[in-house]
Q: What sequence folds into this?
């Protein structure tokens, strides 16, 4: 049987430093985090951006696991080269092949702690459901957004993103560090339970399915001319009603939510998304029946020969 190996990544964005700090402390004391005997590889995703105190050097690393620069390891694009390097080291055909990748992030938005799943891969949904069952974390299903692709975890057979906030970029925070450690240890414990076939999956899971992202209001020159309304700021995960306030302009104009459906906003006013023309994303909360094929896919992955 192939040895189960898990890739743990912090600092995919160089100014998200809480996971980086935790990993560095873990290097000093191997007993700091219980991995339940599972072989893990810890990587700082974007070490050059970490040194520079920036999110990235040339391009967002968490959008770089695709395209020509990724495939050719273009040395003039650090993030494309780094994405290629990580897959060569830890991908399915890499030097140290890992079956699962866990990518730890922080956000300036008031998201609390949550999981992000890209698409509907069975093993991803099975692992996310185990964590939701243990910790009650929301699951944000990011799909059907052609402007946002090339995410790190998609290059592994199973992968989840952990997002924790709010925290300013480049700042350490005791709550964020504690939450990162708790979720990491819970993930490793649940993966161990899958390995031991001593596991309990829930009957249902709550999904927040991505619908679309919206931009800030802008003037005729393309400059932002309004900001997130005070009644919307830090209200991630709270359902919107028609005519709820979204943005405010200094001339007194209020831009309101005009949809009929009670969408739920996430990543409200995330600092790193301003450059992506995203003020917030809308999701639809859905209750999904757990599927047996999800469970089997995760078990087969962990126990593959």
A:
């Amino acid at each position: 049987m192939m040895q189960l190996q898990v890739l743990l990544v912090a600092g995919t964005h160089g100014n998200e430093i809480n996971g980086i700090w935790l990993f560095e402390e873990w290097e000093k004391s191997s007993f700091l985090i219980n991995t339940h005997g599972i072989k893990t590889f810890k990587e700082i995703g974007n070490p050059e951006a970490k040194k520079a105190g920036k999110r990235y050097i040339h391009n967002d690393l968490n959008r770089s696991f695709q395209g020509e620069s990724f495939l050719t390891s273009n040395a003039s694009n650090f993030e494309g080269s780094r994405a290629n390097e990580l897959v060569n080291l830890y991908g399915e055909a890499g030097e140290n092949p890992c079956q699962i990748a866990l990518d730890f992030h922080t956000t300036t938005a008031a998201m609390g702690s949550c999981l992000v799943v890209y698409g509907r891969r069975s093993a991803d949904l099975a692992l996310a459901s185990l964590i939701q069952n243990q910790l009650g974390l929301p699951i944000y299903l990011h799909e059907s957004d052609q402007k946002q692709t090339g995410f790190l975890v998609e290059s592994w057979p199973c992968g989840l993103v952990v997002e924790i906030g709010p925290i300013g970029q480049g700042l350490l925070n005791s709550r964020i560090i504690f939450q990162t450690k708790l979720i990491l240890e819970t993930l490793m414990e649940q993966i161990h339970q899958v390995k031991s076939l001593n596991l309990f999956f829930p009957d249902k899971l709550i999904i927040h399915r991505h619908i679309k992202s919206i931009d800030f209001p802008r003037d005729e020159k393309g400059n932002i001319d309004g900001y997130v309304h005070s009644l919307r700021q830090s209200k991630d995960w709270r359902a919107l009603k028609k005519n709820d306030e979204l943005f405010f302009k200094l001339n007194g104009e209020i831009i309101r939510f005009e949809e009929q459906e009670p969408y739920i906003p996430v990543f409200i006013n995330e600092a790193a998304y301003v450059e992506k023309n995203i003020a917030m994303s809308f999701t639809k909360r859905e209750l999904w029946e757990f599927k047996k094929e999800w469970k089997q896919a995760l078990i087969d992955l962990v126990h593959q020969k």
Summary: Residues 5-203+290-302 form a domain with the Aminopeptidase fold (CATH 3.40.630.10).
